[in-house]
Every structure is written in structure tokens, then in C-alpha cells.
Amino acid sequence: MIRAALGLVGLLGALAGVPTASAEGNADYSVLMISRERLEVASSCEIGIYLNDQLAGRLFQEQATSFNLPPGPVDVRLRLLPGQVPGCAPGIEDQRSTRLTLQAGQINKYRIAMGQNGLVLKRAGLGY
């Protein structure tokens, strides 16, 4: 019994040193939401989302993802990813990216659509 009490006191002491999360601390970040609507892109292929040339997310039809990013510029590039579905190999593709400038505390929502040169981001309303 005494061992259990001492263990509990030690655990509570260790937890006292862990910083607590607060909503105010999140104001230093920006939220980037990207969705893939079924009607915008008719392909069943998986789409890769690259942030600053690093694969950060993958979307199938009717999926969405979000990222908490520091404020400042971020380059977003979209491309079809090879997968299990036939015909999804990208071949020669457009390597252009979209530069977004994110502000601290801002929520940015975009949807993936087809443009003249391939996949593009279009600003979307937050819907709330």
C-alpha cells in the first residue's frame, strides 16, 4: 500500500514538469485544410500533397486533410500517385507548385480541382 502511494506521488511529481497545452499557444500556427470533392476530380487515383517538396498527405475521393503550419510562405504541389488502380502512373507531369502565404491564427481551406495544366488548388469557404 505504501509502495503504491509513493509510486503515485512520484508519478504526480513527474507530471508537474510537463507543460500544459492551451488554445492560446496555437495562435502561432496557421491551419491549411485541403479537400478532394468527388465531382471536381473524376479520377479514382490517389493524389499526393507535397508541402515544400515533401510528401505530406494523400487523398482519395471524398477525403480531406489538414495541416498545422507555422506562418509564412509554403509551396503546395499536387500530383497523381502510382498505386493499385490501373492508369494512375503520372508520366510527364506539371511540376509547378502554388505558393501560399499563411498568417498566424488563420484557417485556410482549399479544394482540389482540375485546371488546364492539371491539378490545382481553389479557395473554398469554411462553411461554418
Report on the structure:
With 128 residues, the chain is mainly beta. It has one domain: Immunoglobulin-like (Sandwich). Helix content is 12%, strand content 42%. It has 1 helix and 8 strands. It has one helix at 2-16; strands spanning 30-36, 47-51, 54-59, 63-69, 72-80, 98-102, 107-115, 118-123. The strands form 2 sheets. The protein has a 4-stranded mixed beta sheet with strand order 4-1-7-8, with no helix packed on it. Strands 3-2-5-6 form a 4-stranded antiparallel beta sheet, with no helix packed on it. The longest helix has 15 residues, at 2-16. The N and C termini lie far apart (53 Å). Residues 5-9 and 14-23 have low confidence and may be disordered.
Topology (elements, then pairings):
Layout: H1 2-16, E1 30-36, E2 47-51, E3 54-59, E4 63-69, E5 72-80, E6 98-102, E7 107-115, E8 118-123
Parallel strand pairs: 1-7
Antiparallel strand pairs: 1-4, 2-3, 2-5, 5-6, 7-8
